[in-house]
Design a protein that fits this description.
The complex is a heterotrimer of chains A (about 250), B (about 290) and C (about 260).
Chain A: E1 5-16, E2 19-30, E3 34-38, H1 45-52, E4 62-70, E5 73-74, H2 82-88, E6 89-92, H3 103-113, H4 119-132, H5 136-139, H6 152-164, E7 170-174, H7 182-195, E8 200-204, H8 208-214, E9 217-222, E10 225-231, H9 232-237, H10 242-248
Parallel strand pairs in A: 3-8, 3-9, 6-7, 7-8
Antiparallel strand pairs in A: 1-2, 1-4, 4-5, 9-10
Helix pairs in contact in A: 3-4, 3-6, 4-6
Chain B: H1 3-42, H2 44-49, E1 53-54, E2 62-63, H3 66-97, H4 100-115, H5 118-137, H6 145-169, H7 173-181, H8 186-197, H9 199-215, H10 218-223, H11 240-247, H12 256-286
Antiparallel strand pairs in B: 1-2
Helix pairs in contact in B: 1-12, 3-6, 3-9, 4-6, 5-6, 6-9, 7-8, 9-12, 11-12
Chain C: H1 3-20, E1 26-31, H2 36-49, E2 54-58, H3 62-71, E3 76-79, H4 85-89, E4 92-106, H5 117-124, E5 142-146, H6 151-160, E6 170-172, H7 175-184, E7 188-193, E8 202-204, E9 211-219, H8 226-236, H9 238-243, E10 250-251
Parallel strand pairs in C: 1-2, 1-3, 5-6, 5-7
Antiparallel strand pairs in C: 3-9, 4-7, 4-8, 4-9, 4-10
The chains are: A alpha/beta (about 250), B mainly alpha (about 290), C alpha/beta (about 260).
Chain lengths: ~250, ~290, ~260
């Protein structure tokens, strides 16, 4: 089966000031699949994820070299409209970071930003996004209540709904379940299963079993390099690099 | 430190805190006891809604503070209407948009402005602003509610900026990150996420500004003209504070006139307390966890 | 404008008096700001004669000065108006120091030459609003007066028969304020004590005389200190009278108008 490559890194280096965080990364992300990035803390997987939507721009002194493309266009090209890029590549963070607004306004924030003003269109987008994030049933009757009153797991699913509301093509998830209890984590994993047909998902996780459960491709990062990449099943059952094997068996990191 | 020493130190701290509270209670008691009788004697309605303040008339004095009250309210509201948007935008610039060096520089200048004594603000208003308004608008004198509003706006700008900047700095970076990740630009994020998220702190800045403006006497005295007219923008006005300042020296001790001036003090006290309570009330109503 | 400070100063003076007992070598004066110039001339002469005695003076207005004398906050009150029956009933005693003339001042650039009492009434009651009606430039008239309770205001309005009818543009808390603001505004007209006038303003010759007494006020019930009694005797005696013309006022013995 041929797969379409939507994001592609070729010799990507990344620096925080003088410190190099990524070394010559070569990695393809297939469209409409879940790709997991694993590796020990500080290995560069989150940095790589944050290169994809240029969230690293917020850090003073950060800079990228080499090639990183989205649909064949350089992400770090000079003059690139970063806001437009981020609209197409959404992100869910490690800790739920809802705005101190109502549930409705949180989800409607993105669409409003991008010019949707009609009440009915907003209502429709909000409901569709909440349904897609599998939280509609829980909040349908309290859309006007403060979003920060929800439980942690609900907040994270609301974050997903908020990201989906701007209709991105890619969804980046930065350890999105690490702050949640197992039940909430399970719900989100199930949710990912329903989202992967429509969205390209890139997932950073410390949880090896989560990577195994939800992803079809996995890349193993170590010390700012991609040590090994491949179909999840193969990588987990027959790692080719002994460092991957050591990490998977708990002897590393 | 020994246990006894520890206990003694804590007792001293507690006593100091108690002293502050006691002072406030004393002040409240003073204003109530000195201000209320005259209001009762004059009549609540006549006092608060009376349109003529003519306290010096020995035969038939009139103690209507409505002109003074309205002038104070208009003055403070006008000053806030100018200083709050300007202050918020300045705070936003300092907290977010400005390069570090520029921000530090502007911050120092704002602090310097805050340190300008009110009498100096009044002096500048008197020698620059008032003649300008006079010539520009063909007014007899230029001393006016407008001049008072402008001077007050300058005076309350620094505390508004400072408080608003603190409030903005306290907004978690995660909110802004979330907004950027949704494709918002920096300006969109600052105005639609950062400012609203700073809500109660910003409100506190506004309330503090209005409170300061209501309470300011010296500078206003120098530019407002001080005639107890019903306020008009370009006309001479007397505010609650300047009313007290102008007349207290002439009021015989214990006379109704002096007690009426103390009642104005009570009204001022209540206004300022209300302004201080406002942010707290709003926060409780907002129901944010 | 000076009221707040004056009040604070009075408090301070009261506290000091209470703490240290009234120092024999100090005389505290308070009251009419219009009398400031006259009192300072007298004070200078007096201090030369009695270097051991300090004379302090603040200008909180006639009303405050009389109250101060009655309550003992100051030794001698300064009043630039006659005492009221009520004040006399409470024990106030006025000692005529001098007769002061109230003059009408305008900006030095104002071309208006003379004025009748009728014109003055028209201006101060707001019937005449522009200088062009008087042969001046086409500018609005800014009517400057003193705050209610001022001795100068009482005397001015009382003499012209327009008490309580004035339409002031601005009211000021002291003679100096009126003077300074007239000097700073080409539209302005204001009344001040002759003794306070300087070259920063132009005095408009009138066809009438506006006079009022300068009084030193004491209280029947508060005995004067030796120092205060000495100052009172000096100021109201022939010695003081020699100095009074220096400040532009007429000594008491020139008689009532």
């Amino acid at each position: 089966m041929s797969e379409q490559i939507i994001l592609s890194a070729r010799g990507l280096d990344f620096y925080y000031g003088p410190a190099q965080a990524l070394r010559s990364i070569h990695l393809d992300i297939p469209a409409k699949k879940v790709t997991a990035l694993i590796g020990p803390s500080g290995c560069g997987k989150s940095t790589f994820l944050r290169c994809l939507n240029r969230m690293n721009d917020l850090i003073p002194g950060a800079r990228a070299e080499g090639s990183l493309t989205f649909h064949g266009e350089e992400i770090y090209q000079k003059g690139r409209d970063v806001a437009a890029l981020r609209r197409r590549i959404g992100m869910v963070f490690q800790k739920p970071n809802l705005f101190p607004m109502s549930i409705y306004d949180n989800v409607a924030y993105g669409p409003r930003l991008h010019g949707i003003r009609s009440r009915s269109a907003l209502d429709e987008t909000v409901e569709r996004s909440l349904r897609a994030a599998a939280i509609w049933e829980e909040v349908a009757n309290r859309l006007k209540r403060p979003a920060l009153g929800l439980s942690g797991g609900q907040q994270q699913r609301l974050c997903i709904a908020r990201a989906l509301a701007v209709e991105p093509e890619v969804l980046l998830m930065d350890e999105a379940t690490s702050a949640l209890d197992p039940i909430s984590t399970g719900r989100i994993e199930t949710l990912l299963g329903t989202l992967k047909d429509r969205y390209t998902i890139v997932l950073v996780t410390h949880n090896m079993r989560q990577a195994a459960r939800v992803s079809s491709r996995t890349a193993f990062f170590l010390n700012g390099e991609v040590v090994e990449r491949g179909p999840t099943e193969r990588l987990f059952s027959m790692p080719r690099d002994r460092r991957t094997e050591a990490y998977l068996t708990g002897c590393l990191g | 430190m020994s246990r006894a020493g520890e206990r003694a130190a804590q007792a001293v701290l507690f006593l100091c805190a108690l002293a502050a509270v006691a002072l406030l209670l004393l002040l409240t008691a003073f204003f109530l006891s000195s201000g209320l009788p005259a209001i009762r004697e004059i009549g609540w309605k006549e006092f608060l809604l009376g349109r003529v303040w003519d306290s010096a008339d020995r035969a038939a004095p009139q103690f209507g503070i409505l002109p003074l009250l309205l002038a104070s309210i208009y003055g403070a509201a006008g000053a806030a209407a100018l200083a709050v948007p300007l202050g918020l935008l300045t705070a936003l610039f300092l907290a977010r948009a400005a390069p570090k060096g520029v921000a530090a520089c502007v911050r120092q200048l704002v602090r310097l402005l805050a340190g300008v004594p009110s009498v100096v603000c009044g002096l500048v208003g008197m020698t620059v602003l008032v003649p300008f308004l006079r010539e520009w608008l063909d007014l007899p004198a230029g001393d006016s509610l407008l001049a008072a509003v402008l001077v007050l706006a300058v005076m309350i700008l620094p505390p508004v900026v400072e408080l608003a900047e603190d409030a903005l700095a306290a907004v978690p970076a995660a909110y802004e990150e979330a907004s950027f990740a949704l494709g918002a630009t920096e300006t969109e994020t600052w105005f639609q996420v950062t400012l609203p998220a700073a809500g109660s702190g910003v409100l506190a800045a506004v309330a503090l500004g209005i409170g300061r403006a209501v309470g300011e006497a010296m500078a206003v005295l120098m530019v407002a003209g001080n005639v107890a007219n019903m306020p008009t923008l370009l006309g001479s006005v007397r505010l609650l504070t300047t009313g007290i300042a102008m007349e207290f020296g002439y009021a015989a001790a214990g006379s109704l006139r002096q007690r009426a001036l103390l009642s104005i003090g009570l009204v001022l006290f209540v206004l300022v307390v209300l302004m201080n309570a406002l942010p707290h009330l709003a926060r409780r109503k907002g129901g944010r966890p | 404008m000076k009221r707040g400070y004056a009040f604070g100063f009075l408090l301070l003076a009261a506290v000091l008096a209470a703490c240290g007992g009234r120092a024999a070598g100090t005389v505290n004066l308070d009251g009419s700001s219009a009398m400031g110039e006259t009192v300072s001339v007298l004070r200078e002469a007096f201090t030369e004669k009695r270097p051991g005695i300090r004379v302090n003076c603040s200008g909180s207005g006639s009303g405050a000065g009389i109250e101060g004398a009655l309550s003992g906050v100051c030794d001698i009150g300064l009043s630039s108006r006659a005492l009221t029956a009520e004040e006399i009933a409470r024990g106030a005693e006025g000692h005529l120091l001098a007769w002061d003339e109230i003059v009408v001042a305008v900006h030095p650039d104002n071309p208006v030459q003379t004025m009748s009492a009728g014109t003055l009434v028209d201006i101060f009651t707001g019937r005449l609003r522009r200088w062009s009606g008087l042969g001046g430039e086409d500018r609005p008239i800014a009517v400057y007066g003193r705050e209610a309770g001022s001795g100068t205001r009482d005397a001015f309005e009382g003499t012209l028969g327009i008490a309580g009818q004035c339409a002031y543009t601005n009211e000021y808390g002291s003679t100096g304020d009126v003077l300074g603001n007239v000097a700073g505004n080409p539209n302005a007209i204001g009344y001040v004590s002759r003794s306070a006038v300087d070259e920063t303003v132009a005095v408009v010759p009138l066809d009438c005389l506006l006079r009022r007494p300068f009084l030193l006020v004491t209280c029947r019930d508060n005995p004067l200190s030796e120092a205060a009694a000495a100052f009172l005797e000096f100021a109201t005696g022939e010695e003081g009278a020699k100095y009074l013309p220096l400040s532009g006022v007429a000594p008491a013995w020139e008689g009532r108008p």
